[in-house]
Each structure stands twice: as structure tokens, then as C-alpha cells.
Design a protein that fits this description.
The complex is a heterodimer of chains A (310) and B (293). Helices cover 37% and strands 29% of the residues of chain A. Chain A has 310 residues and is an alpha/beta fold. In chain B, 67% of the residues lie in helices and 0% in strands. Chain B is built from 10 helices and no strands. The chains are: A alpha/beta (310), B mainly alpha (293).
Chain lengths: 310, 293
């Protein structure tokens, strides 16, 4: 039966001594490109290790592509590609041999592995460079080789751990485009871990956000970020109206708006931008406050993440 | 002139049947053998395997040359016992165990291949099985190769064992001895090398395990007067002694010339088994600790 959930976890907990790396995670990762976001140490790599069956969880359950990673590890890992974070590869091995060898280990027949290695390297833009030793390649090229080896054996799912680590902005754009392409063009589901929220927001359909091992948000990116905007109104305290900022904040809350205050800045998260701007205007006028500026921003993943983790 | 055209096959899905863990083990083993022997690598990686092979095959080729030159005179005292042919190959395999075998596992830890391997259908035990097979196969070339070559050449010259049954028995004993020697050095070298992920330190660890223990045991026996039985813990002599016992013989070192007592065969086999178990034990424990890396 075709699965609609790529990864599903319930109460997933991982304890390393006294440190809890994952804390009772309940996850549903759908098909498409999913961003696994969180700061360094949030538990992203631990979650990937458990999903691959490299280590058992302390408690809880997880299924990947409908399989239990602890019981069906070999079967699961033959259809899951993995690109590790560590950017170290065998120095003296040509890229084509490296990708071919790993494709064979993942179950490809020898003759098929050679062709697929070549195809995967062409796909990631290293066709002309495929016979070069890995040790002579740049960081960007090595990241592409890691992606090529992850997809060469025609996986159903690819787990990529910080695939843009060490790349310059141009290389990062190209890598993100490639990841989007392998999902859109070849139907390979991707779980991409990153601590850079902006890049996740650019290419992911869904997100799973972790903070110190806890789940802080998950779901389709569009529904999490939606069309909400953040309006920042910066007011000036004046002698004649010493409590004006407090009063404006109070009026906005009474109007039912979600307001956060940072000194003299009032940040309003709103689904209806015009209504919120009108409310700010009315409150400022009513309290005779002095307005320095108003900035309207679309709500970003970073806003959501900051809000959820505070 | 026909216009050139580039056909882009492009990335595509795979509809065939995927091979299982057995194929993965074979693939990693073959890849490791090629790496150990320097195949497909730069010339400098081939130098040491060639030196080891020369050292291993030298005595067999020397004896063969003598038998060709002096013929029947080789029969009797001049003709070595079959187990004695393992003498120089064991020196060669010790060099191999110290300088080449650690490469099989240390390199994977250093350059990130281990983590990639463990993300495939391989598990830590099947990965180690592949590495063990690779090291054993490489060592078997220099251990079994010279002895079987000598047996075959002697047979062709009419100097081999009498009768087919005897020939089969000698061949079986040579293979069994080779197998035990190879398992012994593969287990010890991989076990010792697993304690570090730096190749130079791994070689030092293997040296310490082989030569360090051997020196301590021999000083204890020869200088302090400890029982000769302790020699079964000497990793440099017990593999050859095991081969001698398989052929129903024993070496001088395991005989006390004052009392005429010979270290019991069971203890010799026990010492060999202990070293093999220790090598496997350290290897398994180390990779259990490393876990998912």
C-alpha cells in the first residue's frame, strides 16, 4: 500500500546519559521536501540516525517508509539515501568509483551501478569531473558528490544532513535547486536538516522544527507561515505623553491583535495587514503618541521559530 | 560527416531487483582487497604489498630452485617439513598485519566511509565481516600461496607425498594451517588497529600487541624461568607452532631440553584460540562503543 507519511514517530525519546537529545517527539513527515530545522544540538542528526536505524531510540516508536528501522534496517537502508554532515571523503578515490561503490553496496547490480553513478554525477553537475579524485575537489563539489552518492541507488527517500554546510551563497543556491529538482522531477522524498531557516523556507514543502530535542512546530510551510505579516511600529517616548507607548500597546491588545513589545517597538503579527495598520494608526492618534516608523514584513520561519522556542 | 549528437540518458528510476546484504559484504570486501593491495591506486601504494609477497614466496621458490638443480638430493634432511614453509610467510604476514591490515578499517573511520557504509544495508557486524574477509583473503595469498606452490611443484617433480590419500592429507593440513594462521593475524591486527583512527598509531598498536607481548613472554620464560607453557601466549611463535602440531610435529622452542617435556598440543591450540578470541573481542567491543559513529 503506498504510504502518505514518509516518517512517523510517536513519543520518540533519546537519552544520552543525563542529556535528553530527543524529548517525546510526535512526528508526521509527509511526502515532498521537508526541512528539519533547529540550532546546532537541537537533535536533528540524532533523529536522522534513529530514522536510519543506526541507533535505537530510548523509548517511543518510529516508522520510515512504513518500516521499523530497528527491525527492517537492511531493507529500509537499501531504499534510503543518506548524505552525512561530515565533509570528509576518501581522498584518493575518483568520484565515479566512490558513487559506484556505494550504489553497489546499496544493492545495485555492478553494471547498473556504473551507469547510475555516471548519471547521478551528471545530474549534480559533475559529469565532466567524475574521474577526478575526491581529494582534489572543492567543498562545493564534494557536497555535490555526497548528494550524488545519496541518490545513485534510486532511493525513495533521501536524508541530507546540512547539505549546504561550507558553501558560498552561489553554491548554496545551486545545491538547493538540485535538492528541489530531485524531489520535483524524480519523486524522491527529501528530509533536509539545516540550521539556516532561510534556505529551508526557500525549498521545503513542510517543516519539522526542533529546539533542544523538543518539537516546536511541524506541518506544511504554507500553513505555518501563511500570508501573515509582522508590522513593527516604533514609537517615541515624549515628555508630554510619558505612558503613550503603554497606552498604544493596551489599545492594540484590546483590538484583539497579537502584540509583542521590545522597548519602544511594538510588533504586531496579523493575518489582515490593512486592518492592523488601521488599528495602529487609530491607537497612535487616540493616545497622541509620536510614531517614528512602521515596517511591514512577511512572517518568516525564523519569526515562527523564535516565537515557538521562547 | 555526420553531425555529432549527445544522448542524455539522464537520471532514471531502477526497476530491477536489489541485491541483499551478502552482495554488500562482497562489494566492500573486494573494494578493501583492492585498496590493501594497492590496485587502482598510485604506485607507492603497491610497493609494500609487493615486498611482502616477495618475502613470503622467497623460501618456497628457493627450495624449488634447489630441487630442480640438485634433484633427488633434496629428499631427506635437506627437504623442509611442510609446516616449516610457513616460517618466512609468517614474517611477511606480520609485516602485513602491522603496516597494511590497519588500513582496512582505520581509513574508513578517518575519511567518513564508515558512517556512509552504516547508512547502507550493512550493519557494524556485517561491515566488520567484510573487512575481516578482505584482510584474510589478502593474507591468504602470502600464507597459503607459497606452501601450495611448493606442494604442487614437488608433486610435479615426484618429490611430493606418496599416494593420493597422503597428498590430500598434506594439502588439507596446509590449508587448515594457512587458515588458522590467517585468522590469527587478521583478528589480532584488526583488533589492535581498532583502538585508534590514526594509521600510524594503529600500526604501533599492532606492533605492541605482537612484539610487545612476545618480548614479555620470552623474557619471562628464558630469563625469569617461568614455565615454557607460557609460550602459548607468544603471538609470534604460537601460530607456527600450531601449524607444526597440525602436521604432528613440534618446534624446538616448545621443548624443554633439560626435561624433554613438550608443551601440550591442547595448550598450543588453546593459546591460538585465546589470541583469536581476544582480537575479535576487542574489535567487537570497539565497534559497539563507536555505535552509529
Amino acid at each position: 500500500m503506498p504510504f502518505v507519511t514518509v516518517i512517523s514517530a510517536a513519543g520518540l525519546t533519546m537519552q544520552f546519559g543525563s542529556q535528553r537529545a530527543l524529548d517525546s517527539l510526535d512526528l508526521e513527515v509527509p511526502k515532498g521536501v521537508t526541512g528539519l530545522v533547529g540550532a546546532n544540538g537541537a537533535g536533528k542528526t540524532t533523529l536522522m540516525s534513529i530514522a536510519l536505524g543506526l541507533r535505537p531510540a530510548t523509548s517511543g516508536t518510529i516508522t520510515v517508509l512504513g518500516l521499523d528501522p530497528t527491525k527492517d534496517a537492511a531493507r529500509l537502508r537499501s531504499v534510503v539515501g543518506y548524505g552525512p554532515e561530515r565533509n570528509v571523503l576518501p581522498e584518493d578515490m575518483p568520484a565515479s568509483d566512490f558513487v559506484k561503490h556505494l550504489a553497489e553496496v546499496r544493492g545495485m547490480p555492478k553494471s547498473e551501478a556504473r551507469g547510475r553513478a555516471s548519471d547521478a554525477l551528471w545530474l549534480v553537475g559533475l559529469g565532466e569531473e567524475r574521474f577526478r579524485a575526491l581529494g582534489t575537489m572543492s567543498t562545493g563539489q564534494r557536497q555535490r558528490v555526497k548528494l550524488a552518492q545519496a541518490i545513485a541507488a534510486d532511493p525513495s527517500l533521501v536524508l541530507l544532513d546540512e547539505p549546504t554546510d561550507g558553501l558560498d551563497p552561489v553554491q548554496r543556491d545551486e545545491m538547493l535547486a538540485l535538492i528541489r529538482q530531485i524531489s520535483a522531477d524524480y519523486g524522491i522524498d527529501v528530509l533536509l536538516s539545516s540550521h539556516l531557516l532561510e534556505e529551508v523556507e526557500r525549498i521545503c514543502d513542510n517543516i519539522v522544527a526542533l529546539d533542544a530535542g523538543r518539537l516546536v512546530a511541524q506541518g506544511p510551510l504554507a500553513s505555518l507561515v501563511g500570508d501573515t505579516t509582522t508590522i513593527t511600529a516604533e514609537l517615541v517616548e515624549i515628555v508630554e505623553r510619558p505612558r503613550a507607548v503603554d497606552a498604544v500597546e493596551e489599545r492594540l491588545r484590546e483590538a484583539g491583535l497579537d502584540v509583542r513589545r521590545d522597548l519602544n517597538q511594538l510588533r504586531v503579527t496579523a493575518a489582515d495587514q490593512q486592518t492592523s495598520l488601521d488599528a495602529i494608526r487609530d491607537a497612535v492618534a487616540a493616545e497622541q503618541a509620536r510614531l517614528r516608523r512602521v515596517v511591514v514584513d512577511r512572517t518568516t520561519l525564523e519569526d515562527l521559530f523564535t516565537e515557538a522556542s521562547t | 560527416m555526420t553531425a555529432a549528437e549527445i544522448f542524455d540518458r539522464g537520471y532514471r528510476t531502477f526497476d530491477g531487483e536489489r541485491a541483499g546484504v551478502g552482495k554488500a559484504v562482497r562489494s566492500v570486501a573486494w573494494h578493501t582487497i583492492r585498496s590493501i593491495l594497492g590496485l587502482g591506486r598510485k604506485g607507492r601504494h603497491k610497493v609494500f604489498p609487493i615486498i611482502v609477497a616477495v618475502v613470503a614466496f622467497l623460501p618456497s621458490i628457493g627450495f624449488l630452485a634447489l630441487s630442480v638443480l640438485i634433484g633427488d638430493l633434496m629428499e631427506g634432511e635437506l627437504q623442509p617439513e611442510y609446516w616449516e614453509l610457513f616460517g618466512l610467510p609468517i614474517v611477511a604476514v606480520m609485516l602485513f598485519a602491522t603496516l597494511v591490515a590497519p588500513e582496512a578499517i582505520v581509513r574508513d573511520r578517518r575519511d567518513g566511509m564508515l558512517r556512509l557504509y552504516l547508512s547502507t544495508p550493512l550493519t557494524a557486524p556485517t561491515y566488520l565481516a567484510a573487512k575481516f574477509v578482505a584482510v584474510m583473503t589478502s593474507m591468504a595469498i602470502v600464507v597459503a600461496g607459497p606452501a601450495l606452490l611448493y606442494l604442487a611443484a614437488n608433486t610435479i617433480q615426484g618429490l611430493g607425498p606418496d599416494g593420493f590419500a597422503n597428498w590430500l592429507e598434506v594439502a588439507a593440513k596446509l590449508l587448515l594451517s594457512s587458515g588458522i594462521i590467517v585468522v590469527f593475524f587478521a583478528a589480532v591486527s584488526l583488533g589492535a588497529a581498532s583502538v585508534t583512527d590514526r594509521r600510524a598509531f594503529a600500526s604501533v598498536a599492532v606492533l605492541a600487541a605482537l612484539f610487545g607481548v612476545s618480548i614479555v613472554v620470552n623474557i619471562s620464560v628464558e630469563s625469569i624461568g617461568a614455565s615454557r607453557t607460557l609460550l602459548v601466549l607468544d603471538p609470534l611463535s604460537v601460530p607456527l607452532e600450531t601449524a607444526a602440531r597440525i602436521f604432528g610435529d613440534n618446534s624446538d622452542g616448545y621443548t624443554d631440553f633439560d626435561t624433554g617435556e613438550v608443551v601440550p598440543t591442547g595448550l598450543v591450540y588453546g593459546g591460538t584460540a585465546l589470541w583469536i578470541a581476544a582480537g575479535f573481542g576487542v574489535l567487537a567491543d570497539r565497534y559497539r562503543r563507536i555505535g552509529a559513529v
